[in-house]
C-alpha cells in the first residue's frame, strides 16, 4: 500500500534577506499539513509568520530547504510553473480583503478561475454564484466591493479563495480588521467550509480565540517552531 | 482574453485619469493629423502650381559644344571657352526617341513639341511671345489647358491658336481675333480660338499654343522638334526616370526636380520640420501615457500582487498594461483623427489650398498612435510584471 504524501511538507526551510549583511528570518522550519487540517499559525510580531506564509504560498522562494505540495517539490520550478501550481492548489485570504475595486463581487470571486483559464467565461458564473449564496451574499453578485461592509468583503475574499477548489487555503490575519461579531461569522464560515470539504486551512493569527477554534496550533518564535500540537496543549496564549 | 478584460476594467475604474490622458492623446493625434494634412495640402498645391505648366521630364538635344582652337594637326586645346553663338541643332530621329520615352516604366504621357521665341503684333501692340507647337491631344496630357480655359475652345488645327489671359489682354485680343506672329523673316497670321488661365504668369503672358505644323513652319524647323515632354506617374520618381530615359535615348534629359532645385529643397526642409513636429507631438503623447501608467502601476501594487497570488501569470500582468497603451492609442487615434479632420475642414475655408485628410494619413495616424501607446506602456508594464507579489501585497517598495 502506498502512502499518500502530505498536502504540504516543509523540510529545513530557511529564509534570509539582505545583500551583503543578511538577516535570517526563518531558521530551518519543518512542517507538515494533511488534507482537511485546520491549522493556526501564531507567534509574536516579527517571528516570521508572514514570511513563512509567503513561502508556503509560493509567492517567495526559500534560501534553503524544501517545500513540496502534494509531493511536488517547488524549489526548482520556474515562475510559470509556480504560478500554475499556486492557481490550482492554493487559495489566499488577506487581512485587508484585497478585492479588486474595478471588478464586481462576482468577477472578484471568478478571478482565480479566469486566471487559470485565460479569461472570464459564462461557465464560471454558476459555481461563483453558488459560493456567494452559501455565504449569504446571493443578492450582492453584481455589486461593487465599495458597496459592501468589511465583513461582507472578507466573505467575498473567502469565496474567491475557494473558487478553484484549492487543496490548501492560506489566510493571513483574516479577522484582523473585523469586529468581534463579524470575526466570529468569518471563523464559523472557515470551519464550516473545512468540515464540509477536504480543503485544509492554514490561518496566521494573533487572535487566541480564533487559534483555539482550530484543530492544531503551530507557534513560531524568532523563526523557529516552538510548538506544534493541539490548542489544549498550549501552556500560554500570551 | 483576461489581459484585455482587466485592462478595460482598470481604465474604467480610474475613469478621470483615463479620460484626461485620452484627451491628451486625442489632442496629440489631432495635431499630428492636422499638421500633416496642412503640409501635405500645401505641398500638393505648390507642386500642382509648379508642374501644372511644365513637363515632369524634358528630353532635348544640348547646344553644340564650343569648338576647340587647333594649334597643330591632331592637337587640340582650349585657351578660352566662350559660349558659342546660339545655333539650331536638329533633334535627330526624334520619332524613335518618342517611342523609347513612351516605353520607359513610369512614363504616362509623352508629347513631342517645338517651341521658340517670336513677336506677336496686333494694331500698335507688339509682344515677345513663346510659340509652342504640339499635337493637341498629347499636349493636354502634359499641360491641361482645356481644364483651364476661360473663353473659347481648345483646338489647334489650321490657323488656330490658344493664348494665355495676360497675353490676350496685352494684345487687346479676344476669341476670334487674328494675331500676326513673326519669327526671323517668317510670318503667320493665327486666329485665337481659346484663352486660358493656367495660374502661372510666365505661361499666361507669353504662350501661344498652336499645331505642331504651324509652329514648325513659323520657327523654321519643318519636320523637326525642339524637345520631348513627358509626364510620370510619381513626380518624386521623375529624376530616376529621367536618367533611365537619357540612357535609353542618348539625349540629354532633365527632370522637374533638377529644374526646380530650390523648390525641392524647400519641400524637403518642410518635410524635415513636419517630421520634427510630429516626433515631438508623439513624444509628448508617449510621455503622457507612460507617466499615467507608471502612476497606475504604483497605485495598483496591491491589486497586481493579488492577481499574481490567485494564479495570474507575469505575461498576463504585462498584457494588462500593454493593452491599456493599445486602448489609449486606438481610441485616441480615432478621436484625434476626427478632431484633426474637423479642424482641417474649418481652416480650409480660409486657406488658399485644399486640406485633405486622406485614408493613408488616417491609417498612418492609427498605426503611429497604437505603436506609441504600446511603446509608452512597455516600461510600466514590465515593471508591473516584475513586481514581487509578496512585497506588492504587503505594500513594500
Q: Which characteristics define this entry?
A:
heterodimer; A: 238 residues; alpha/beta; Rossmann fold; 6-stranded mixed sheet; B: 397 residues; alpha+beta; 6-stranded mixed beta barrel; two-stranded antiparallel ribbon; 12 strands
Give the topology:
The complex is a heterodimer of chains A (238) and B (397).
Chain A: E1 8-17, E2 23-33, E3 38-42, H1 49-56, E4 64-69, E5 72-73, H2 79-89, E6 90-93, H3 105-117, H4 125-134, H5 150-162, E7 168-172, H6 180-196, E8 200-204, H7 208-212, E9 216-221, E10 224-229
Parallel strand pairs in A: 3-8, 3-9, 6-7, 7-8
Antiparallel strand pairs in A: 1-2, 1-4, 4-5, 9-10
Helix pairs in contact in A: 3-4, 3-5, 5-6
Chain B: H1 2-13, H2 15-51, E1 57-59, E2 69-72, E3 75-77, H3 94-102, E4 107-122, E5 125-134, H4 136-140, E6 149-152, E7 160-164, H5 165-171, E8 178-183, E9 186-196, H6 201-204, E10 207-210, H7 212-218, E11 227-232, H8 238-249, E12 253-255, H9 256-259, H10 261-299, H11 301-309, H12 314-348, H13 359-386, H14 389-394
Parallel strand pairs in B: 5-10, 7-9
Antiparallel strand pairs in B: 1-11, 1-12, 2-3, 4-5, 4-8, 4-11, 6-9, 7-10, 8-9
Describe it for me?
The complex is a heterodimer of chains A (238) and B (397). The N and C termini of chain A lie far apart (44 Å). Chain A contains 7 helices and 10 strands. In chain A, α6 links the parallel β7 (168-172) and β8 (200-204). Chain A is an alpha/beta fold and 238 residues long. In chain A, α3 (105-117) packs across α4 (125-134). Chain A has a 6-stranded mixed beta sheet. A 4-stranded antiparallel beta sheet of chain A has the order 2-1-4-5, covered by helices on one side. Chain A is globular, with a radius of gyration of 18 Å. The mean pLDDT of chain A is 88. Chain B has 2 domains: 2-48 and 264-394, no CATH class; 88-251, no CATH class. Chain B has a 6-stranded mixed β-barrel with strand order 4-5-10-7-9-8. Chain B has a two-stranded antiparallel sheet with strand order 2-3. In chain B, α10 (261-299) crosses α12 and α10 (261-299) runs parallel beside α13 (359-386). Chain B is elongated and about 105 Å long. The mean pLDDT of chain B is 88. Chain A binds chain B through residues 50, 54, 57, 59-60, 79-80, 83-84, 86-88, 92, 94, 96, 98, 100-103, 107, 111-112, 114-116, 118-120, 160, 164, and chain B through 1-2, 5-6, 9-10, 12-13, 302-303, 305-314, 316, 388-390, 393-394.
Amino acid at each position: 500500500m502506498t502512502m499518500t504524501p502530505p498536502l504540504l511538507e516543509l523540510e529545513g526551510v530557511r529564509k534570509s534577506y539582505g545583500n551583503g549583511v543578511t538577516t535570517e528570518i526563518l531558521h530551518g522550519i519543518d512542517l507538515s499539513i494533511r488534507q482537511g487540517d485546520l491549522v493556526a499559525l501564531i507567534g509574536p510580531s516579527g517571528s516570521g509568520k508572514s514570511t513563512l506564509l509567503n513561502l508556503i504560498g509560493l509567492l517567495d522562494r526559500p534560501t534553503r530547504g524544501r517545500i513540496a505540495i502534494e509531493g511536488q517539490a517547488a524549489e526548482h520550478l520556474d515562475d510559470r510553473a509556480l504560478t500554475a501550481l499556486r492557481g490550482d492548489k492554493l487559495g489566499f485570504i488577506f487581512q485587508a480583503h484585497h478585492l479588486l475595486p474595478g471588478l464586481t463581487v462576482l468577477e472578484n470571486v471568478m478571478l482565480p478561475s479566469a486566471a487559470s483559464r485565460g479569461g472570464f467565461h459564462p461557465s464560471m458564473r454558476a459555481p461563483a454564484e453558488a459560493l456567494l449564496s452559501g455565504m449569504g451574499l446571493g443578492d450582492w453578485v453584481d455589486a461593487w466591493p465599495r458597496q459592501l461592509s468589511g465583513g461582507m468583503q472578507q466573505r467575498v475574499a473567502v469565496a474567491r479563495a475557494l473558487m478553484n477548489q484549492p487543496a490548501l487555503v492560506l489566510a493571513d490575519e483574516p479577522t484582523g480588521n473585523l469586529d468581534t461579531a463579524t470575526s466570529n461569522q468569518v471563523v464559523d464560515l472557515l470551519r464550516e467550509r473545512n468540515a464540509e470539504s477536504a480543503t485544509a486551512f492554514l490561518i496566521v493569527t494573533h487572535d487566541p480565540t480564533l487559534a483555539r477554534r482550530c484543530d492544531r496550533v503551530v507557534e513560531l518564535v524568532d523563526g523557529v517552531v516552538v510548538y506544534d500540537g493541539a490548542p489544549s496543549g498550549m501552556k500560554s496564549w500570551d | 482574453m483576461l489581459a484585455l478584460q482587466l485592462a478595460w476594467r482598470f481604465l474604467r475604474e480610474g475613469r478621470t485619469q483615463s479620460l484626461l490622458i485620452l484627451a491628451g492623446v486625442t489632442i496629440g493625434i489631432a495635431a499630428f493629423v492636422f499638421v500633416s494634412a496642412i503640409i501635405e495640402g500645401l505641398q500638393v498645391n505648390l507642386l500642382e502650381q509648379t508642374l501644372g505648366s511644365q513637363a515632369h521630364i524634358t528630353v532635348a538635344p544640348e547646344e553644340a559644344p564650343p569648338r576647340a582652337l587647333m594649334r597643330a594637326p591632331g592637337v587640340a586645346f582650349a585657351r578660352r571657352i566662350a559660349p558659342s553663338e546660339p545655333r539650331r541643332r536638329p533633334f535627330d530621329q526624334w520619332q524613335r526617341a518618342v517611342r523609347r520615352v513612351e516605353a520607359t516604366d513610369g512614363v504616362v504621357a509623352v508629347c513631342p513639341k517645338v517651341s521658340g521665341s517670336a513677336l506677336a503684333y496686333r494694331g500698335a501692340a507688339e509682344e515677345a511671345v513663346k510659340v509652342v507647337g504640339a499635337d493637341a491631344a498629347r499636349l493636354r496630357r502634359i499641360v491641361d489647358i482645356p481644364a483651364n480655359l476661360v473663353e473659347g475652345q481648345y483646338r489647334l488645327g489650321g490657323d488656330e491658336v490658344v493664348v494665355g489671359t495676360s497675353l490676350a489682354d496685352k494684345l487687346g485680343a479676344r476669341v476670334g481675333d487674328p494675331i500676326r506672329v513673326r519669327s526671323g523673316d517668317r510670318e503667320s497670321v493665327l486666329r485665337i480660338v481659346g484663352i486660358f488661365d493656367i495660374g502661372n504668369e510666365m505661361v499666361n503672358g507669353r504662350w501661344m499654343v498652336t499645331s505642331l505644323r504651324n509652329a514648325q513652319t513659323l520657327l523654321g524647323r519643318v519636320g523637326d522638334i525642339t524637345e520631348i515632354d513627358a509626364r510620370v506617374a510619381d513626380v518624386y520618381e521623375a529624376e530616376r526616370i529621367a536618367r533611365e530615359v537619357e540612357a535609353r535615348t542618348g539625349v540629354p534629359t532633365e527632370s522637374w526636380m533638377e529644374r526646380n532645385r530650390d523648390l525641392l529643397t524647400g519641400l524637403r526642409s518642410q518635410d524635415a520640420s513636419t517630421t520634427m513636429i510630429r516626433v515631438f507631438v508623439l513624444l509628448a503623447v508617449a510621455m503622457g501615457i507612460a507617466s499615467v501608467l507608471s502612476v497606475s502601476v504604483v497605485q495598483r501594487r496591491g491589486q497586481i500582487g493579488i492577481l499574481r497570488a490567485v494564479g495570474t501569470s507575469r505575461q498576463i500582468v504585462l498584457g494588462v498594461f500593454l493593452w491599456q497603451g493599445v486602448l489609449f492609442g486606438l481610441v485616441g487615434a480615432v478621436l484625434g483623427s476626427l478632431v484633426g479632420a474637423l479642424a482641417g475642414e474649418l481652416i480650409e475655408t480660409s486657406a488658399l489650398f485644399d486640406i485633405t485628410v486622406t485614408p493613408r494619413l488616417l491609417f498612418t495616424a492609427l498605426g503611429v498612435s497604437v505603436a506609441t501607446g504600446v511603446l509608452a506602456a512597455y516600461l510600466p508594464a514590465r515593471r508591473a510584471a516584475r513586481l514581487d507579489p509578496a512585497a506588492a501585497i504587503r505594500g513594500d517598495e
